[in-house]
Predict the 3D structure of the following.
Amino acid sequence: MTSIRPLPDLLVSQIAAGEVIERPAAALKELVENSLDAGAGEVRVELEEGGIRLIRVSDDGIGIAGDELPLALARHATSKIGSLAELERVASLGFRGEALASIAAVSRLTLASRRADAAHAWRIAAQDGVLAPVEPAALAKGTVVEVRDLFFNTPARRKFLKTAATEYGHCEEALRRLALARPERVFELRHNGRVVWRLPAQDAHARGLALLGEGFAEAARGLDEAVAGLRISGLVGLPAYSRAGRDAQYLFVNRRFVRDKLLNHAVREAYRDVLHHDRHPAYLLFIELPPEQVDVNVHPAKTEVRFRDAQAVHRFVFHALQRALGRAVDRPLPEAAHHESGPAPGYGRPAGPGAGHGGGGGRGPGVFGAGWPRQTGFALAREPANAYLAMVQDALQPGAAPAPDTVRFESDPALPPPLGYAIGQLGGLYVLAENAQGLVVVDMHAAHERIVYERLKAELDACRLERQALLIPLVFAASPIEMATAEACAETLAAMGVELAPVSPTHLALRALPALLAQADGEALARALLRDLAEHGQSEALTARRNELLATLACHGAVRAHRKLTLPEMNALLRDMETTLRADQCNHGRPTWFALSLAELDRMFMRGR
Ligand code: ADP
Ligand code: MG
């Protein structure tokens, strides 16, 4: 047994480093954050072998005085906060004062810097925790940090590094997050001598395009809403652009990249209506609020945050996104709907004075300036269907009242409505219609399901869900689980307009349904609802599950495939689609219709016109 003694300093730093610097990308992130905190307008990153061999970060920021260079490499030395009060409203990216010390403990590090008022630059080198004396260096401005041979003296950690290609991928991703958050700064990335990115100072939209690809930007909607010091702006990907994985999810709080359970949940909820549960949405979102409303000091890697009023933030994000997604295929909302005024219910304190660099404090122009596109058009501008969507939009403009179909039918019979008139039914699944441009094909079940769903939701929201009592109760044999669920969830069911009660130990009776579902197969519908409820139990509140239950109802209430529709029925469906929010996507995010213009048909048949 050995006696108790303090750990050597170097070992302490190496242990600390293990917590925050697990791979080159983590070191890179710390270095670039330092550059950003130093007010750099331009950050250059050079990597060799995925950052394992070399990470060099150069900036044109304020620099470090020669006599402070040793301090910059000391643990718990920082220029960014000096008191607990400051910690509470920290706006800089770093503040723990341990990144440089940690990296220096596990690499060969040199730091060269020059302040604007200095006659020349100074540099310091560190290896194995020993600092070489500060010496003069040549550098025009700013700071250059060089990190070579990461983990050369901690073989156990080095073993965990992956291939250079993999480590490079992590580095690129880390830098992408930082560059997305700071579009006004210039970034350059080189790997093994080759330039990978050269990003000029630009607006957030252009930066998003440059880093996330045009495909995303085209299939996304802009949003920008603010309320009482809380602001959200950015781009939400349309359901059609959903992914199998969670890549392409960028969420920033006060320009800090976060992966936060609460926020993720709010986003997921907003997409729930339009996205199948095993698909993942793509988004680039910036949330800004006064720094004292959010604690970023939760986790060393700092990707989690804690909000003072988590519920208010959740509500705000959820509603803003839901509106943006709803608008995506609906008419543009009038300006008033952007909620610039009025406090968010329950949202803590009003915005404090703006923070220094870093948090936008929810004031001023926000991350997204005026250049950010509003959701006035449709992203899939090149898609043929777009022309029709635009027509639907036009028809639904506030000025176009009364109802567009009345206008089109009565005052100008020569002009067909946007989705046209039905010609017939194909394969028992599709309604074919002719409009001014050509052919419209509708997936009748999916489209009807969407309509029923939106109407149910609207009726419930307005607290006037119309119920229809069955003349003769529908009695059916039920399993013990179904019996138990019906009893336990009677209230939830009643709230959705479904009256279902035991009539014997083995039988249930359905006595009422939402009127919209009067045509549905009551027994199948009741069983599906019970299955849904049983799966999730009573734990989740009705509000959280409501829309899922409505979707189940809608699916059963919608016309079944292979049902013969009459022409007037088909036309009624088309008119309903034109007036229903989000009618071009079914509940699972599938499209519900598409169009083929005469010009496209001509091209197919090689007909010159
Ligand atoms: P922290 O960022 O948490 O303060 P670091 O260990 O990352 O801790 O950096 C220590 C200090 O070194 C910083 O507080 C800052 O004063 C200085 N520093 C580090 N990098 C730079 C840079 N690129 N430009 C100017 N100062 C820097
Ligand atoms: Mg730092």
